[in-house]
Amino acid sequence: MKAIKNILVAATLLIAVQANAQTDKETTIKVINNQHYVFNATSAMPMANNDVNRVLSRMPGGAGGGMIQLSGSQYQLIVTKDSVESYLPYYGRAYTATMNPDDAGIKFKSKKFTYKAEKKKKGSWLISMNFKDTKDTQSMILNVSENGYATLSVNSNNRQSITFNGFISEPKEKKK
Q1: What start and end residues bound the annotated signal peptide (predicted)?
Q2: Domain ranges of the chain
């Protein structure tokens, strides 16, 4: 299991390195230190199994249990000092069904959570969040490069893990 996770993280980082920078280094450092940023998901990678592969191969552009492009979407994770708000899709196997079909994705707002940001070698960050007031999602691990590219791993008791690729940015000011 740990080897699969390491392979997924390595593959994600290789893909992210090939693209252009999303944010400059100063902005990345500032938003992480202030704990005030938005993770914008651009693709999702569900854990592959036969059931998921069958469904994904029927989707437009789907070649089986690989990456699902989320371009044109507004899927994001908003992190502030006092809350974490998630609006992300979910692809994969759920071990318990939800009673409300609107709860199909990874949607929640948490005010009771632990947050740990650790600076790694070469300027990257490893951010772990554990939630105490959400019914499904237990933890998230966010790996952020110094250019703002990020990989988000979502772990749950009731669903298979899923990984998202994307970038972090400063939150946009709300219009009054």
Answers
A1: 1-21
A2: 2-169
Which pair of structure tokens corresponds to residue 148?
């703002």
Dihedral angle computed from the Cα positions of residues 169, 162, 67 and 21, in that order, rounded to the nearest 10 degrees:
20
Average pLDDT over every residue of 150-154: 95
Cα separation of 101 and 118, whole Å?
A: 37
Distances 49 to 55, 141, 155 between C-alpha atoms, Å:
10, 22, 17
Using an 8 Å Cβ cutoff, are 154 and 91 in contact? no
Among the CATH numbers 1.10.760.10, 1.10.10.10, 2.40.128.410, 2.115.10.20, which is that of 2-169? 2.40.128.410
Please say if the pLDDT value at position 74 is more than 80: yes
Whether this prediction's pTM lies above 0.90 is answered by no
Q: Which of 3, 15, 10 is nearest to 167 (CA)?
A: 15
Percent of the chain with pLDDT over 70: 75
Backbone angles phi, psi at 142, to 5 degrees: -115, 120
Residue from 137, 161, 136 nearest 151 by CA: 161
- In tens, the pLDDT along 124-151 reads 999 999 999 888 778 999 999 999 999 9
